[in-house]
Write a structure and sequence with these properties.
Number of strands: 52
Shape: elongated
């Protein structure tokens, strides 16, 4: 019995396996098979070469009859044969296959389109690149395999016959993100947001799922969904990361620093949300290649490795219209252009009305006077726009050149009139806020282990206002200007499979100018300051062979030329995976910052934009320095995600002028620090196609000003408890999201009484209780949004969507201050309220 089995096994090796190997190795073009059959059976085939070009078969056995051979070919190819005569045979193909080889590339896990994948028919020059829908076409038909490659996905070979079907099939690629950029989870809050093991959050707006209250993936509103990031007054321009002020965040767009992050004076992101951005957010453990931003770093890039096919999009919502296009100018170059402009100066929508009421409350636009005998009126003309352009040129195969430009603008014109004693007087005021930026970068891969990148950048910001008083002939001009230029060099060296060493140098020069001019009484102040900073950078990355341990240690040695000051900044980020599901994360950093925003008067720039940028002078405006550490845990199993992070941060060198005090310390100039510690917790569950999550953040945030009467008290930006939650559905072409946000009111200072204090009879003042000893009312808001996508043809999509902010129409006071009413001679309370229920809708055509 054993002998018989042995003979069978030997027979398999000797006869069957060689036959199988022959089946794989001896496939030939169908055209060649037809030629051989023609010689053998004395027949001729009539066919269109393009219709049989994709077929490669193992030839039928010579011992078969002609009909058996034809049956064999039909079985393999679905081709049909019709005898015109005994010697002439017509080859009939399915006419529905008369189209290019096409398909859709999708992510195997998320089922999202894969953009920018490269396809090539092997051994030919026929190539294609997938568009925004993951769609591709290969116009040349060949029997050769098609190789599909993408930086973030495993390379795949597909037979041409797989695409030679009636409809364009879907091809799924497996992500290798875990090999390239280790992650804690590929879905964090919603699709398109990833938590990486280096402690950063990566957001890809083009792939992002629906978020509550957003019609489009607004860059800065999206980041506010992440635990520990809030806007106490709903404004992007007041984004607080772990208790810091907005100016303590570093915002970079393609290497250009943004000093203006919002349109509508902070209510809308200044960047077109429909650009193919990739956003990395670091709350701690920032790479040593980035200085400034003592609270966080937000790095935004539109650079890609490949030259992509031409595509475009146009869109419209109830505030603005926009367009985007990427044109493939050659095999090695792209031009990308985007633009957006509001039409609020032409048409008034319900969305604009609510935004207007929110932003311009308690400003000269809406703040009329108390004299009932005089009729006041105000007309405003407001619009904004942004524009970006990018040129990408591949130089040979290893070098990429990028040139980027950026322009952002807000313009407000206000005409105030009053009618007194039958005489009408008109005064004109205006406010302009503009940003211009440019960057040129050259990246070269010298070989598989060494690469370099050099970039030169410039960023210009200007805010300018002219306020003509309706009550007098006074004209008040204010201006704040920043010019930031620099050069950055970065080298990367792969030392081994485990270690990568990076080093570089950065130089930047920042000049800030502040101007105040008053005609009556005559007053003029012009201040210009310049600082130059040099930085040497070194960073070592480690990744264990089993991917259990990932780490990065960096050092940044700064030298501020004007102060002859050295500042050494270590950075560390460590991630250890105890089990396949449980990870530990430790991060720490030391950073400094020489730019900050101050509030000279609450009426700066018409009272609408109340802050101006200034530079440290190493005296009354010191260099801000921060130290922070964090310890985090994450658990990810069976579509459950739990994260817990404890943090501690201390920032020294803050000025009271930068904190926006509106109490007894409003006009006090002193320096101090703040210390914040807390916990961030998230629990998330995916019930495909539904994702549900809830997060909780606790913060204890306190000032310490040694020279004030009350040295220690709560920070103006302290939000002690925050809860955010959402349920997001992504089912085929329909996306829905509903979410809620609750947080305790920020600190405020109440007056002692409604009667002013007359320490000086001519200048009554408000008497205040202990600073920040009370809190505003708790904030609660429910938001909803939805979207639907129509596929129009193979390359185009029409997206419709809507959102409702503040579904329950809660009216919450998000800020309050006190002033003396000169008519009634009492202390009155001035409230700023949250955005009322606000609908929005959008229409977007992608092609």
């Amino acid at each position: 019995m054993n002998y018989n089995r042995f003979l069978i096994i030997i027979s398999l090796f000797v006869f069957v396996l060689p036959l199988r190997a022959q089946d794989k190795g001896n496939a030939v073009l169908l055209k060649t098979i037809f030629e051989n059959i023609s010689k053998k059976h004395q027949v001729s085939f009539n066919y269109i070469e393009e219709e049989i070009a994709v077929f490669k078969l193992v030839p039928p056995s010579n011992s078969l009859t002609l009909q058996e051979k034809l049956n064999y070919i039909t079985e393999k190819t679905k081709l049909k044969f019709e005898f015109i005569s005994k010697k002439y045979i017509s080859v009939i193909n399915n006419q529905k296959l008369d189209k290019p080889l096409c398909g859709f590339l999708l992510d195997e896990e998320t089922k999202e389109p894969i953009i920018g994948a490269f396809l090539q028919i092997t051994a030919t020059n026929s190539t294609a690149i997938t568009n925004d829908l993951g769609y591709f076409e290969l116009n040349v038909k060949s029997a050769n395999d098609i190789e599909i490659s993408h930086l973030n996905y495993k390379t795949k070979l597909v037979q041409s016959t797989f695409l030679y079907v009636e409809n364009c099939p879907k091809i799924y690629l497996k992500s290798i993100i875990n090999d390239l950029e280790p992650v804690v989870t590929t879905v964090y809050l919603t699709k398109g947001i990833t938590k990486r093991k280096d402690g950063t959050f990566e957001i890809k707006p083009k792939k992002i799922g629906q978020l509550p209250g957003l019609t489009e993936p607004d860059v800065f509103q999206t980041m506010q969904q992440i635990p520990g990031i809030n806007a106490t007054d709903e404004n992007i321009s007041n984004t607080s990361v772990r208790g810091g002020t907005h100016d303590q965040n570093l915002f970079l767009w393609n290497g250009i620093r943004l000093y203006q992050t919002g349109h509508f004076f902070g209510l809308i992101s200044s960047l077109n949300p429909n650009l193919a951005h990739k956003i990395n957010i670091a709350k701690n453990g920032t790479s040593a290649f980035y200085g400034d931003g003592v609270s966080s770093s937000v790095l935004i890039s539109t650079h890609t490795d490949s030259i992509e096919n031409t595509r475009g999009a146009i869109g419209l919502n109830l505030i603005n219209a926009d367009f985007y296009t990427k044109v493939k100018t050659s095999k090695k170059s792209n031009i990308e252009i985007s633009g957006r402009r509001s039409y609020t100066d032409l048409v008034t929508s319900p969305t604009y009305t609510n935004y207007f009421n929110k932003i311009f409350q308690n400003t000269i636009v809406t703040n009329y006077f108390d004299n009932q005998n005089i009729k006041y009126n105000s007309d405003e003309d407001f619009y904004f726009y942004d524009f970006t352009a990018q040129y990408h040129q591949k130089i040979k195969r290893k070098t990429d050149l990028f040139i980027d430009i950026l322009s952002i603008s807000n313009v407000l014109d206000v005409l105030q009139t009053k009618t007194e004693n039958g005489i009408t007087t008109s005064k004109y005021s205006c406010l302009e806020q503009q940003t211009y930026g440019a960057n040129a970068s050259l990246k070269t891969d010298w070989n598989a282990k060494n690469s370099s990148e050099i970039s030169i950048y410039a960023s210009y910001y200007n805010i300018n206002s002219e306020n003509e008083s309706i009550e007098s002939n006074q004209i008040f001009n204010q201006e704040n200007t920043i010019l930031d230029t620099g050069i950055k060099l970065q080298n990367s060296h792969v030392l081994s499979d485990k270690f990568t060493f990076l080093n570089g140098y950065q130089f930047n020069e920042i000049g800030v100018r502040n101007v105040d001019i008053v005609n009556t009484p005559i007053f003029s102040r012009k201040i210009k300051e310049v600082l130059k900073n040099h930085a040497l950078i070194a960073e070592l990355k480690y990744r264990s062979s089993n991917d259990k341990f990932n780490g990065r240690i960096g050092f940044r040695q700064n030298y501020i030329q004007e102060f002859s000051t050295f500042i050494f900044e270590p950075r560390v980020q460590l991630n250890y995976k105890f089990t396949p599901y449980f990870q530990l994360e430790i991060m720490g950093e030391s950073k400094h910052q020489t730019t900050s925003q101050i509030v000279d008067l609450q009426q700066d720039f018409l009272g609408i934009e109340k802050r101006r940028w200034t530079l440290s002078n190493n005296k009354d405006i010191p260099i801000m320095k921060s130290k922070q550490t964090s310890l985090g845990f994450s658990f990810n199993k069976n579509n459950w995600l739990l994260t817990l992070e404890n943090f501690y941060k201390k920032v020294d060198g803050i000025t009271s002028m930068s904190q926006g005090f509106q109490n007894q310390y409003e006009f006090v100039k002193t320096n101090g620090n703040y210390t914040v510690y807390g916990t961030e917790f998230l629990i998330q569950k995916q019930f495909r196609p539904i994702t549900a999550w809830i997060s909780y953040t606790f913060q204890e945030n306190n000032y310490d000003f040694k020279t004030l009467n009350t040295t220690a008290f709560p920070n103006n930006f302290e939000i002690k408890h925050t809860i955010k939650s959402a349920i997001i559905s992504d089912f085929k072409n329909i996306k829905l999201a509903i979410g809620a946000q609750w947080f305790t009111g920020k600190p405020t200072t109440l007056p002692i009484s409604t009667t002013p204090i007359y320490t000086d009879p001519e200048t009554p003042t408000v008497g205040y209780q202990s600073p920040n000893s009370s809190n505003l009312e708790d904030y609660f808001q429910v938001n909803f949004s939805g979207a639907y996508a129509f596929n129009i043809g193979k390359k185009s999509t029409l997206n419709l969507g809507f959102s409702i902010q503040n579904v329950l129409n809660n009216k919450t006071s998000i800020n309050q201050h006190y002033r003396i009413n000169n008519n009634t001679n009492v202390v009155e309370q001035i409230n700023t309220f949250s955005l009322e229920r606000t609908p929005n809708a959008f229409l977007r055509f992608t092609f």
